[in-house]
Design brief:
The complex is a heterodimer. Chain A folds into 2 domains: 52 residues, Arc Repressor Mutant, subunit A (Orthogonal Bundle); 142 residues, Tetracycline Repressor, domain 2. Helices cover 72% and strands 0% of the residues of chain A. In chain A, helix 4 runs antiparallel to helix 5 and helix 6 crosses helix 7. By secondary structure, chain B is mainly alpha-helical. Chain B has a domain of 121 residues: Tetracycline Repressor, domain 2 (Orthogonal Bundle). In chain B, helix 1 packs across helix 2, helix 7 crosses helix 8 and helix 8 packs antiparallel against helix 9. The termini of chain B are far apart. Classes of the chains: A mainly alpha, B mainly alpha. The interface between A and B is large, with 52 and 48 residues.
C-alpha cells in the first residue's frame, strides 16, 4: 500500500484539474464525485480524502487555477518595462474566448447566492484579482506614468466590467466579440489612469 | 389561470431555494394545485424550470420598458434593489448559468440583453449625444452585471448604494465614436 502523503503533490492537482473540467462541462449539480474521480484516474474515496464536497471541489479548483495564473503572471509582468505595458497585459491575459473557466466562476456566483462560505471564497479570489490590478496601477502612479485617483476603485471598475463582459461572451451574444471586449476594457483602463475613475466633474 | 400560478410559484421558489433545490411538490403546494396538474402542464422538471425563468423575464421586461426617468433612473431599475428586482436578479443569474450550457435558453437571455441594449441606446442618444451609443450601451450592461452581482452577493466592497454611484460614475469619461 503506497504511503498517501507522498503522492499529495501529484494527486491533489490532478483531482482539481479533473474537477475543473467536469464541473465546467456538466455543472456542479450534475457532477458526481465519482465522475471527478474517473477523470482524475482515482477513486471516489481518493477524491473525498482531499475534498469533502462538490462545493469544496469547485472552490478549490478555482483557487488552484488562480494560483497557477498568478504564478505565471508575476513572471510575465516582470518582463515588461512600463506600467502601461503591464496594465495592458493584465487586461489581455484575462480569460480567453471559449475558456471553460468563465462558467466555473458563474457556478461559483450562483452557489454563493445561497452559501455564505462560497461567497467568502469568491470575495477572497476576487480581491486577489483586484489587488493585482491595483498594484500595477499604483506602480504606475508612483513612477509618474499614471495619474488618476484611487487605484482600488479603478481595479473594482475593471473587475466588474470584465465580469459583465465575460457573461455576454459566455452567452455567445453575437454583438459582442472578444476583440471588442478587450478593446473596451483597455480603453477604460487607460482612461482611468489618465483622468481618474469616477471623475464626474469631467462629464 | 393555473399554468401562470404554477409559473409564479416556481419563480418564487427558485429565487428562495436555488434552482437545484426546488421541489415540484412545494411549487404545487404554493400554487394551490396538485403535483399531477403541474406534470400535466410541464412534461419535465427541466421544462418547468426553464419556462419559469423565461416567465420571470417576460414579467420583468415589461416593467423595464416603462423607463422615461432618464438614464440614471434606468440604471437603477436594472440593479438588484431589494424586493422584486432582487428576486429577478437571482433568477437572472440562474438563467445565465443555465444558458451557457443549454443553448436553447440562450435566445431568452439574448432577447433580454437586446431589449435592454436598445432601451439604453435610445436614452444615450438623447442624453449623451457625444458618446458612441452601442459601445456605451454595452458598457452600461457590463457595469450593471459586474457591479450588480457583487452587490447581490453582499460583497462588502460593493454595497448597493455604491453600485448605483459606481455605474453612473463610470460613464463620465465616455467611449468616443470610432
Amino acid at each position: 500500500m503506497s504511503p498517501r502523503p507522498s503522492t499529495a503533490h501529484v494527486r491533489r492537482p490532478a483531482i482539481l484539474t479533473a474537477a475543473a473540467e467536469v464541473i465546467s462541462e456538466r455543472g456542479v449539480q450534475n457532477t458526481r464525485i465519482s465522475d471527478v474521480a474517473a477523470r482524475a484516474g482515482t477513486s471516489a474515496p481518493g477524491v473525498l480524502y482531499w475534498f469533502p464536497s462538490k462545493d469544496a471541489l469547485l472552490a478549490e479548483a478555482l483557487t488552484f487555477s488562480d494560483d497557477r495564473f498568478y504564478d505565471s503572471l508575476t513572471g510575465e509582468l516582470q518582463g515588461l518595462d512600463s506600467a502601461t505595458e503591464r496594465l495592458r497585459r493584465l487586461v489581455e491575459l484575462w480569460p480567453a474566448e471559449g475558456d471553460g473557466e468563465t462558467v466555473l466562476w458563474m457556478e461559483l456566483w450562483v452557489r454563493a447566492l445561497h452559501d455564505p462560505e462560497l461567497a467568502k471564497t469568491r470575495e477572497r479570489l476576487d480581491g486577489r484579482w483586484r489587488d493585482a490590478i491595483a498594484d500595477v496601477v499604483r506602480e504606475g502612479q508612483a513612477s509618474g506614468e499614471f495619474g488618476g485617483d484611487d487605484a482600488d476603485d479603478l481595479a473594482l471598475l475593471l473587475g466588474a466590467v470584465m465580469d459583465g463582459y465575460a457573461i455576454q461572451l459566455a452567452l455567445g451574444d453575437p454583438a459582442v466579440s472578444m476583440d471588442t471586449v478587450r478593446r473596451h476594457c483597455l480603453q477604460l483602463a487607460m482612461r482611468g489612469v489618465e483622468h481618474g475613475e469616477g471623475a464626474m466633474e469631467q462629464a | 389561470m393555473s399554468r401562470e400560478r404554477i409559473l409564479d410559484a416556481a419563480v418564487n421558489r427558485i429565487a428562495a431555494d436555488g434552482i437545484d433545490d426546488v421541489r415540484i411538490a412545494r411549487i404545487a403546494m404554493d400554487a394551490g394545485v396538485s403535483t399531477a396538474l403541474v406534470h400535466y402542464h410541464f412534461a419535465t422538471r427541466e421544462a418547468l424550470l426553464a419556462e419559469a425563468l423565461v416567465h420571470s423575464f417576460d414579467r420583468a421586461g415589461d416593467t423595464r420598458t416603462e423607463g422615461g426617468e432618464g438614464l440614471r433612473g434606468m440604471i437603477e431599475q436594472c440593479l438588484p434593489l431589494p424586493g422584486e428586482q432582487e428576486q429577478d436578479w437571482v433568477l437572472w443569474v440562474e438563467l445565465w448559468l443555465r444558458a451557457v450550457r443549454h443553448p436553447e435558453l440562450r435566445p431568452t437571455a439574448a432577447k433580454l440583453y437586446e431589449r435592454m441594449h436598445e432601451w439604453f441606446k435610445e436614452a444615450i442618444e438623447e442624453e449623451l449625444p457625444d458618446a458612441d451609443p452601442d459601445a456605451t450601451a454595452d458598457l452600461i450592461l457590463a457595469l450593471i452585471d459586474g457591479y450588480g452581482i457583487r452587490a447581490l452577493l453582499g460583497d462588502p466592497a460593493m454595497p448597493l448604494e455604491r453600485a448605483r454611484e459606481a455605474v453612473w460614475g463610470a460613464l463620465a469619461p465616455l467611449p468616443t465614436p470610432q
